[in-house]
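Now for our target.
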Amino acid sequence: MNRVAIVTGGTSGIGLATANALKAAGLTVYVLSRHAAELPGLLHIAADVADEKALAAAIGEIYAREGRLDVLVNNAGFGISGAAEFTENADAKRLLDVNLFGMVNATKAALPLMRAQGGGRIVNISSVAAPLAIPFQAWYSVSKAAVNAYTLALCNEVRPFGVSVCAVMPGDIRTGFTRAREKSCAGDDVYQGRIARSVSKMEKDEENGMAPEVAGQFLARVALKRRVKPFYAIGLSYKFFVLLSRVLPIRLISWLLGLLYAGN
């Protein structure tokens, strides 16, 4: 039978590139996003990942149509930036509802289906900001660190059912994510302009980053591997940075992150 994949947040950027790469590999690919979309060669269902019931209904509909679910790529997410001190709790919770609980909602809907069929693959999109928390992107970093923790716990819970789970940590990618970031310079006078300088540096790095098609090809390969390890970083430089985060003293890591991204 033809393998079936679901990609959340797959109408643009990394998600769309991953969906197209999975389609090129011969899978039937469904894309889930909040708004209706026409995506050549892909199937689309409108569902908000933050709405647990609506998302479960959409994933259930796909399973009813196809009779199987082989791959789930949890890609939906967005970013906010600003000083942690001045970030409204409501904005932070809204971010977590999508970046963390959107992943949780999709996973909880997919797991019973994968367990019943004897296997499946779940790929969660994290970020190098998970092990290397970025100044003035505190809540985005928190959301991705939580994705990593959830992934590591879950992979051991579901392994006996033939379901494998991993997280992929991209770095700077040239996508609409940069334009869509919700930026707040509240308190920038207090922080002496460091918020604006830091965000400008991050956006410049992203605009000169990896093409989303490269990331999408990598993600599709991971999704289709026979066996996976819990975490992957995309690109040699980011693999090196993640390795450094594991071997260098945390005080030195913190100093380097401040030097690069604290807007000093």
Q: What stands out?
A: The longest helix spans residues 138-158. The chain has a mean pLDDT of 95. The CA atoms of residues 129 and 264 lie 19 Å apart.
